[in-house]
Write a structure and sequence with these properties.
10% helix; 4-stranded antiparallel beta sheet; F-box-like_dom_sf; 366 residues; F-box domain-containing protein; 6 helices; 5-stranded mixed beta sheet; mainly beta
């Protein structure tokens, strides 16, 4: 590779700038030292929406497998940091919680960088301790970053946790503890959480959407009702269950309603509906098509990408994986919003007794 290594630095950087898939960019940098030096993250459009990697259900505690829809292959990565932990994917990072100690961190899965967080024990102060003694557990089932810590130190992490009732808390770099948000007006568990245009939005299982504004200088949180969307559950009379997701598409906030059939004792997704939310008026408008966009839904996290820019991603589809922590069953597929058909996107099974499969957005740290 000596000849390739002797290419002009400007030419190498120009070639690197034309690479759009992050796995290819990482491979590009691995060619030799000269290419790695020239191919900095400044030469890669890091803001370019990437295809999420499908993290398969855990088989052991030291390795994780990631399936690339573009490459149609599985990569096995040594990731012992998640051993004995629960983890939630957000902005290309994991929010991890060690089961035995309650230690919490933000973890980048591909370079193993950690950012220490206040512990899970600190969240107990926001709960009824009598209820905790009765239930003997505290669950953290949502964790969302306002921005990628790889790109900025100005970000907020919001988590949803519950014992007998639900709570929202947030943390910012430099904070010594979690800041509690009063959500006593929310009567059911948060079903989805997203950061959108300077605010965190949550929806609960009763079909209400709330906006939570976190002040930059002071821990002042303003909460207001945005919309009531119980009408989305028009199929309840048929004994079907529905769940809600929040996702951003081209600057718009979408509500995705997922319908499950549990008539045979296990949940099975059979239908989706998509609505655009007017956050000012609190009104919903159903979307019949996504154009070239595709939605990815999973445990804790959702995103949209322009499928026309990548190989192997179908437009107007919703790629989904089991999105409930307690459900370790295989419920995943690609839903065609046009004809309602569901097909497989992974040529195998991803059953797990340790942790269900999920999506993670690949991101760079250099």
């Amino acid at each position: 590779m000596a000849g390739w290594a002797e290419l002009p630095n400007d030419l190498i950087a120009h070639i690197a700038n034309r690479v759009k898939v992050i796995e290819d960019f990482i491979a590009f940098r691995a060619v030799c030292t000269a290419w790695r030096i020239a191919a900095t993250k400044d030469n890669f459009d890091v803001f370019y929406p990437q295809v999420p990697l499908f993290m398969l259900g855990a088989k052991d505690y030291n390795f994780q497998e990631f399936y690339s829809l573009s490459k149609k292959k599985v990569s096995r990565i040594f990731l012992p940091e998640v051993r004995g932990s629960e983890y939630l994917s957000t902005e290309g990072w994991f929010c991890t919680v060690v089961n035995k100690t309650g230690e919490m961190n933000l973890l980048h899965p591909f370079n193993h960088k950690k950012i220490q967080l206040p512990s899970r024990k600190a969240l107990l102060t926001f709960h009824d301790l009598d209820a905790f003694e009765k239930h003997h557990w505290l669950c953290i089932d949502r964790a969302v970053l306002s921005a990628n810590p790889s790109l900025t130190s100005d970000y907020v992490l919001m988590v949803h946790h519950y014992v007998a009732g639900c709570c929202l808390s947030f943390w910012r770099p430099g904070d010594l503890d979690w800041t509690h948000i009063d959500v006593s007006h929310i009567h059911s568990r948060v079903a989805a959480l997203i950061y959108h245009k300077g605010e965190f939005y949550s929806t609960d299982n009763d079909g209400e959407i709330w906006a939570h504004q976190v002040g930059a200088d002071q821990p002042i949180v303003m909460t207001r009702l945005v919309a009531e969307i119980n009408q989305l559950n028009e199929m309840n009379e048929h004994m079907f269950m529905f769940r809600l997701h929040l996702v951003e598409l081209s600057g718009a906030l979408l509500v995705v309603s997922r319908f499950d059939d549990d008539s045979n004792g296990t949940f099975h997704t059979f239908k989706y509906k998509v609505y655009e939310l007017d956050v000012i008026r609190g009104e919903l408008k159903e979307m019949k098509a996504l154009g070239d966009s595709s939605i990815f839904l999973g445990l804790n996290w959702a995103t949209c990408i322009d499928s026309s820019k990548f190989i192997g991603i179908k437009p107007n589809h919703i790629y989904f994986a089991g999105d409930v922590l307690e459900e370790l069953i295989e419920d995943m597929g690609a839903y065609n919003l046009e004809d309602g058909k569901i097909e497989s996107f992974y040529p195998g099974q991803s059953l797990s007794l340790i942790y269900p499969p999920t999506w993670i957005m690949p991101s760079l740290i250099m």
